[in-house]
Specification:
By secondary structure, this protein is of the alpha/beta class. The protein contains nine helices and 15 strands. The protein binds flavin-adenine dinucleotide. Belongs to the ETF alpha-subunit/FixB family.
Length: 309
């Protein structure tokens, strides 16, 4: 058995979810190789080689892979993947974009967002917005799997010394091209890898009031998230959405402010280690998952909390 992990990266830095995916691969067993497909991605390959437990790093450094266009990356993975029993990618935007195409090219099914490994062919994954956990067994000759990072601890980023091998079979499929990207810039930690997340909901009433959460977040080095209602109302951009149709987070501490706790929101944060909820309605469903609940008006207690900190 040998497993190919597809690295998530920005060409300059390795994405944190790659480390969790390596842990998932180790749980399956066998040699774990990592593929870094990108352009000018030598530093990412060097970082991947240091991950504990990685056997070999394959690096495909070519302009065709610079923007992770799935039409270019998927054929490369499918080609290299034939030598492996499993192909794993983090369930990030890129992983979810590329891997179904890989599965189609290999004519196998894809197993989405596993949160646990039972054996080499049996995995657990959430269904119905996380309200049930399905145990799935696959008979596919090559198992193509996306991994929910919050389900696995990160593999140590240091301690390995894998060999780095260049892969040269690069081709531009010529059926799509990169136009532009707009990246949200923030000095705060990235939502999915932050240790502390403070999220605001409709209870914040408008975008200006999120300033209270930003101030609080900056005191404790937290990322700021939001409910879909807050995003849909235009209070904050949609890359801040936590939940079933937003980002999945599992920080050490999640503070929900003015969020009712709809199941679609819980689907994105209920695996957080400690959950704190601030809501003026004592019957709000968020209190059912909260470790600490404060029934109070957020406009009183958030400034108080910030002042105390
Ligand atoms: P509300 O439900 O309106 O809750 C606001 C809360 O603020 C209330 O509990 C209220 O008591 C409290 N509040 C008001 N004023 C104050 C105050 N002054 N002080 C303290 N508390 C106060 N939602 C997500 O979040 N993420 C998703 O990914 C997502 N995906 C969805 C996918 C589908 C297919 C569907 C159908 C829905 C999805 N939703 C998602 C929407 C979800 O069902 C809820 O509508 C949404 O989460 C509600 O957001 P909210 O808690 O901010 O708003």
């Amino acid at each position: 058995m040998a497993i190919l992990v597809i690295a998530d990266h920005t060409n300059a830095a390795l994405g944190a979810a790659t480390l969790n995916t390596v842990s998932a691969a180790k749980a399956i067993g066998g040699d774990v190789d990592v593929l870094v497909a990108g352009a000018g991605c030598a530093e990412v390959a060097a970082a991947a080689a240091k991950i504990e437990g990685v056997n070999k790093v394959l690096v495909a450094d070519n302009a065709a892979f610079g923007h992770q266009l799935p039409e270019n990356v998927a054929p490369l993975i499918a080609d290299l993947g034939k030598a492996y029993s499993h192909i794993l990618a983090p369930a990030t935007t890129t992983g979810k974009n590329v891997l179904p195409r890989v599965a189609a090219l290999l004519d196998v099914d894809q197993i989405s967002e596993i949160i646990a490994v039972e054996s080499a062919d049996t995995f657990k994954r959430p269904i119905y917005a996380g309200n049930a956990i399905a145990t799935v067994q696959s008979s596919a000759p090559i198992k193509v799997i996306t991994v929910r990072a919050t389900g696995f601890d990160a593999a140590p980023a240091e301690g390995g010394s894998a060999a780095v091998e260049e892969v040269t079979n690069a081709a531009d499929a010529g059926i799509s091209s990169f136009v532009s990207e707009e990246l949200a810039k923030s000095d705060r930690p990235e939502l999915t890898s932050a240790k502390v997340v403070i999220s605001g909901g409709r209870g914040l009433q408008n975008g200006e009031n999120f300033e209270m959460l930003y101030k609080l977040a900056d005191k404790i080095g937290a990322a700021v998230g939001a409910s879909r209602a807050a995003v849909d109302a235009g209070f904050v951009p949609n890359d801040m959405q936590v939940g079933q149709t937003g980002k999945i987070v599992a920080p050490q501490l999640y503070i929900a402010v003015g969020i009712s706790g709809a199941i679609q929101h819980l689907a994105g944060m209920k695996d957080s280690k400690v959950i704190v909820a601030i809501n003026k309605d004592e019957d709000a469903p968020i209190f059912q998952v909260a470790d600490y609940g404060l029934v109070a008006d957020l406009f009183d207690v958030v400034p108080e909390l910030e002042a105390a900190l």
